[in-house]
Write a structure and sequence with these properties.
Rossmann fold, alpha/beta, globular, 42% helix, eight-stranded mixed sheet
């Protein structure tokens, strides 16, 4: 199943790129679904139709949907949400505020991923294009599955045991309701089964992200950080989309010459930093791109020499290699400087911090007891060298 995630700073044209890509795939005969995961939906506006939380056909082989994350949240984890609402209302909060507080941080993003994965597993479509929210929202999407670790599993079991023992006593002491078994079952499923399944979908080789930019400094800088963070969590990027370029036709106009010079410099910068990823380009249009005809023209411009469904470039993958008496771990981490990098082993976990993002990776049994000998940046990769603990000496008889 081909899954393509479009992300970028708000207002750069990722919804247009998503819709155009979906239309291009559908025109090639691939049953395709375009999903708007942006809380501020504009996919229906771009397609010039009214969309709902259920997929509907907008063109041959093309369906589109604007997700209602709260509806998805209620469908998958209604018991957990209802318990939190009841708990907050028992403490004197009004219903509206209780509903807002009951939204577990990241739960809406998680519900979006679950819906996408459900459609992917149903095999009704051959490709799914996701119009993600602005960059930070997308990064929450890809980092959420990392919380599924053994510590949370143990904590949840302890909480359930304590609740079972103390519920009769607590009901006499406080009016606050205590969770029942159904709530815990939903929480366990969300924390473990669902997160593991979503994580597998995100790092699947057929899932890639495409970064949408315009020739503006702040936009490009945000895309560079997003590329670093996506790489840290093993979400592959396969292309960059450069939108709203001045066409060559204005080259003779004196007013545009300085703008064109800046644009050429920004294009070279993007090509250099994101290499070897291809940079797809689209010119600035005279009017907004709305409707199937305009989107088809936009898609033709973007994918002039490319197959929109293909994996257009390779951004690297995490890999472990034997190296002399020890091992080397190579992790794609573009644009990271040594002063914003922190690497440490804690028991059987490798913790890597890059900028304001932190990831914990379970080390394989091969590296049990290993220590970090050296960690450094080489090109666009983090290289970590491990030395193995010496084997215990055999005890004399």
């Amino acid at each position: 199943m081909r899954v393509i995630l479009y992300t970028g700073k708000g207002g750069v044209g990722k919804t247009t790129a998503s819709a155009a890509t979906g239309l291009r795939l559908a025109a090639a005969g691939l049953p395709t679904l375009v999903v708007s995961a942006d809380p501020a939906h504009s996919l229906g506006d771009v397609l010039d139709c009214c969309l709902s939380p259920q997929p509907q056909t907008v063109a041959p082989h093309l369906d589109a949907v604007e997700l209602d994350a709260r509806e998805e949240l209620g469908r998958h984890w209604g018991a957990l949400r209802d318990y939190l609402v009841t708990l907050f209302r028992s403490q004197g909060l009004d219903e509206v505020l209780a509903e807002e507080l009951a939204l577990i941080p990241g739960a809406e993003e998680l519900a979006t991923l679950v819906a996408v994965d459900d459609w992917a597993r149903a095999s009704q479509y051959e490709a799914i294009v996701v119009d993600c929210g602005p960059t930070d929202s997308t990064l929450r999407l890809v980092t959420l599955p990392e919380v599924s670790d053994s510590a949370l599993r143990v904590l949840l079991r302890i909480q359930r045991a304590i609740t079972t023992l103390l519920k009769p006593l607590a009901s006499r002491v406080t009016p606050a309701p205590l969770p029942d078994g159904r709530v815990f079952r939903e929480a366990e499923r969300m924390l473990y089964e669902t997160l593991d399944r979503i994580r597998a979908r995100l790092i699947d080789p057929q899932t890639t992200a495409r970064l949408v930019v315009t020739p503006e400094r702040l936009v490009i800088d945000e895309a560079r950080r997003a590329y670093r963070d996506l790489s840290l969590f093993e979400v592959r990027c396969d292309a960059v989309v450069m939108n709203r370029l001045f066409p060559d036709a204005v080259a003779d106009e004196i007013f545009f010459q300085d703008w064109l010079e800046v644009q050429r410099g920004r294009m070279k910068e993007v090509e250099s930093f994101f290499s070897p990823l291809p940079v797809l380009t689209a010119p600035l249009q005279e009017d907004e791109i709305v409707g199937l005809e305009a989107l088809s023209a936009h898609a033709a411009s973007l994918f002039d020499e490319w197959d929109a469904a293909a994996i257009l470039g390779v951004s690297g993958a995490l890999r472990l290699e034997a190296s002399g008496p020890g091992y080397r771990l190579k992790m794609p981490l573009p644009g990271v400087s040594a002063d914003e990098l922190d690497v440490v082993v804690v028991e059987n976990e490798l913790h890597v911090s890059a900028g304001d993002r932190r990831r914990a990776l379970f080390l394989p049994d091969t590296l049990s007891g290993a220590a970090i000998h050296r960690a450094r940046i080489e090109g666009n990769e983090l290289l970590i060298e491990f030395v193995l603990a010496p084997s215990p000496q055999a005890q004399p008889r």
